[in-house]
Amino acid sequence: MTADDVQAHAGALARRALALPELAEARTVAAYVSVGSEPGTLALLDALRARGVRVLLPALLPDNDLAWGVYRGPDSLLPAEHGGGRMTLLEPAGERLRPRAVTEADAVLLPGLSVDARGMRLGRGGGSYDRVLARLERARVRPALVVLLYDWEVVERVPQEPHDRPVDAVVTPSGVRRFGRPASEA
């Protein structure tokens, strides 16, 4: 996909996501900054922040766990190299919050490669978000879990490991698909 394609899809994705009751009522949202050809998230992050939502963004730790920082706008993002320079992520500048900060979120926006008809998410294999989901479960908190994808990344079935957990919804530029609990319980 070209940069223009990613940008066009990002606007549609942000509009769909912002209409979710889970995000409309959220005070704190844990999200991420998209990289490469992932569905763009900056428009959504800025719109959430403009609503007064506290947006937490991840900072990758050496053990692949995630610390968090508060998003203060696009100028507050700094490039951070990981994996010996093989990967550069945009991470929040400023104070680092501990990994457990994610338990304060009303909604968690998750990256992924795909989601299947059961709501199972296929990640990139680093385990960072598996740790996030396990941390939420251990804390006995249940924020809405939402994956942002392109339409063609919603598939019939993805591989599943015993530790995998389903998400509540997937948002694509053309719509929202829900799994499990209704929005009123999110």
Describe this structure in words.
- The chain is an alpha/beta fold and 186 residues long.
- 22% of the residues lie in helices and 27% in strands.
- It is built from four helices and twelve strands.
- Helix 1 (3-18) runs parallel beside helix 3 (42-50).
What's the shape? Answer: globular
Cα-to-Cα separation, first versus last residue:
33 Å
DSSP strand (E) fraction? 25-35%
Number of strands: 12
| Poorly predicted ranges | none
Order of helices and strands: HHEHEEEEEEEHEEEE
Helix content: 10-25%
- Most strands sheet: 7 strands, mixed
Structural class call reads alpha/beta
Keywords:
186 residues; alpha/beta; FTHF_cligase; single chain; magnesium; NagB/RpiA_transferase-like; 4 helices
Q: How does the SSE layout of this entry go?
A:
Blueprint: H1 3-18, H2 21-24, E1 28-30, H3 42-50, E2 54-60, E3 66-70, E4 77-82, E5 87-92, E6 107-110, E7 114-116, E8 121-122, H4 128-138, E9 144-148, E10 154-155, E11 169-172, E12 175-178
Organism: Streptomyces griseorubens
Cofactor: Mg(2+)
Catalytic activity: (6S)-5-formyl-5,6,7,8-tetrahydrofolate + ATP = (6R)-5,10-methenyltetrahydrofolate + ADP + phosphate
